[in-house]
Every structure is written in structure tokens, then in C-alpha cells.
Amino acid sequence: MNRAASAILLLLLVAVSPSWAFDFRKNIGGTDLYFLVNDVNKSTVTVVCPGEKDAPYDGVQRQPQGRLVIPSEVQYDGQRYFVTAIGDHAFAGCTQLTYISIPRSVTSIGRFAFSGCESLHSVELACDSLGAVDVAFRNAMDGSLTPIDTIIISPSVRVLPAFLFCDMEHLKVFNFNAESPESMKYIFFGLKSETVIKLGDNVTEIPAYMCYNFEGLKAMEGGDNVKTIGENAFVHCINLQKIRISPAVECLGNSCFAYNKPQSIVFESVNMPHIGDNPFIGVDKGTAVYIPCQLRTAYVHSQIGRYFPKPLLSDECPEAYNRANELEIIYFSDTVYIHDTVVVHDTIWMTGIYGSAIRDSVDARTHIAQNVWIEKNSVHITVTDFFAGETYSIYDVDGQIVVSGRLPEKPAKKPFVIKLPKKARFYLTIGSFNPFLLDMPNKQVHI
Fold this sequence. Notes:
Layout: H1 3-15, E1 24-28, E2 31-39, E3 44-48, E4 66-69, E5 73-76, E6 79-86, E7 97-102, E8 108-109, E9 122-125, E10 150-153, E11 173-176, E12 195-199, E13 205-206, E14 217-222, E15 228-229, E16 242-245, E17 251-252, E18 264-267, E19 274-275, E20 288-291, H2 296-300, H3 303-307, E21 312-313, H4 319-323, E22 326-331, E23 338-345, E24 348-353, H5 361-371, E25 372-375, E26 378-381, E27 391-395, E28 401-406, E29 416-419, E30 425-430
Parallel strand pairs: 3-6, 4-7, 6-8, 7-9, 9-10, 10-11, 11-12, 12-14, 13-15, 15-17, 16-18, 17-19, 18-20, 20-21, 22-30
Antiparallel strand pairs: 1-2, 2-3, 5-6, 23-24, 25-26, 26-29, 27-28, 27-30
């Protein structure tokens, strides 16, 4: 063969050299991993298979198996490299691989990276920002899926690509621990596999659109520290049986639970969260909604209260409240008006109020809580400067005055007693104002 022919042959061999060739090998926890240098200047590498795609581990004595944690960086020949990618077919055919942890540094996962990993049931993602992933978890031969049933999202994860888990037909458990999620839209879109989402203690936000059209979502567990549920976060999760608004929730995003079919909705907070537009639009208005006693007045005047007008008092209501007279206490003066927060003090159901120019709302509510109570079917009022000389009225649920009068002109240590005519629900006003003229705690309040 002449020199020209040899040169052409050499060029052809170089041109068809497989892209999965590796530059160096490192033993990680007893398992050999293979790395290809992406960029010498940036010191980045890709995890690759040692052979060709049709026989990625042909001739390799020991394939990755069992539990494998990919490192975020490796040392080789005195140089530190950052692991930023998992290449095409990187673990293809590793039939004994059961768990894999992908580090924060990885930004891409190649095609058929886990093809034929028939024992792979659990994947943990710590990727800070993962780009688009295409058929990484499918079998290159027949298109079947790896049997992954558990996904773990680590606290460091911020960005996941759309549709990442939408075809994981074996998924059963999704452990979500992301501390600062930014974009995770449509990651389960159309997935029908019955799945439970377990929210970690460090999760404070469910990002917008995360579970949009996640038809297989069956239940959510945990989430006691979630403050924000993003817009459209759980739209059309038609198998979600119970919606729980935990005590920490401060914001319900636009349409966050739209078009679901829950059996119940449970509010656990005594404070009404900020509510976006139509958080429950498309949900049956007859759905059982449970609220704590303390939330009742705020709930009635909220957008959600108008959508679900007949809530049920939750089991957490104090026993004393259930067996006592029900009394709503409303204080009026020239500059005082109703607001929509309620508190329970001993056996009294009280509507909080805003104070006048010289008394802020906290002072007014605290003052009422300390100086008005129910005892032996009577209302007891310690007449302070705050109450002295004011008129009072007790209304029944139909807005009719059943008892009225004026409190003593001077403060007194001995309580002023107002006898209630029977054990029932009443409204007490202190100040000359009829609450029923304001369309506030009225017949809508009854549960």
C-alpha cells in the first residue's frame, strides 16, 4: 500500500472513531468509571462507557453494579476535573445496577445512558441545573423503560427540564427535597403511574407547573414547612384524593389546584393565606372542605369561602368550643371596623377587630381576649377604659336583638355580666352598630 493510500485510510479510521472513547479510568468506591475530557481549559469531563454503543462494556471484567454514586469531580494525573455530563450509553447494559446518584455538577444526560439497566429502581438527582434529557432511561433495542420506581430530588436541585419524568411508567415514590426550585415545569406531564410525593422538611415552595397534568399523583406526604404553592402547580391531578393546606402556607398561586377531583380539602392554618386567582377552579363545589375554628370568619369572606360556601369545622376544634355557647364579639367605635382574622380564647369564638387611631388592631384584639369571656351561659366583661360607657347588643343568627344595654360609665374590677337567653349562637357588639348592615358575620357564617 502506497503512502497516499495509507494516509487516506488513517484519516478514515480517525473519522469513524467512536465518540464514546475514554481518556482515563478511575476507580470510584470499587467501581471503575470511564471519563472523556470535554474541555481541557475548563477541566470538565463526561462519564462514558469504555466500548462501543452496541457492546459498551464488552471485555470489561466488572461492570458498575449495586449502588453507584457518581462523583462531582475526579483527580487524574495531577489535574482536577469536574464531572458535567453523562454520555450516550454510559451505563447501557449494566444489568446489576440498582441505584445511581447523579451529582450537582452534571448538566446533561445522554441518549440511552441507562439502556438495559433492568435492575435500576432508584435514581437520586442532585443536579443544580439539568438540561433537556432525551430517552436516557429507555432501552435502545426496544424502547422499553428502565424499572425506576423511586426518584429522589436533593436540596441542591434548582432546574429540571420539562417532561423529564413523563414516561416513567413504574414510578411509585417521588422524594422532593429541593430548597430553592426555580423551574420544573411539566416534569410529570401526562404520567399515569400511581405515585406518592413525599415533601422534605426543608421544602418551602412547590414551583409553578411542577405537577401540571400529573394524572397518576395519588397523595402528598409531609410539607409542613411549605409556604408557597406556585401557580398551576397541581392542575388536573385528577387522582389526588386529599388536598392539605399545611399550617405554614402563606400563598396559594393562581389555579394551583384547578380541575382536580379530591375527596377532601383540609386547611390546617389559623391564618388565611394570600390567594391568587381561582386556586380551585374546576373543582366540585360540593367537595368536603375542613377548616379550623379560628379560620372561620376569614374563610367566609375569602375567595375560597365564596367558592366552597359550606365548610366543615375540622376535628382540631377545641372541645370547649364545641360544648360552649357560640359568641362572636365585635367591637365598634367611630373609627373601628371589622377585619377577617378570628381567634379562639377559652370558650369564646371572637372576631378580631382593627383599633381606632389610638389603638392598633393587635391591642384591640388582645384587650378583648383578656377581658371578655363566657361563664355559666353568661358573657362576662371586665369594664375597662376601652369599654366604659359603650352600648352593647346581642344578636341572634337572624339579626334580631335579644339583649341590649349600656356598659357602666366607669371602669370596674368586678365583671359586668350579660345573661344569655339560651345555649345558641349569638353575636355581641360593643358600640352602637348593627353588624348585619355590613354583610359581615351573618347567616353565611353558619356551618
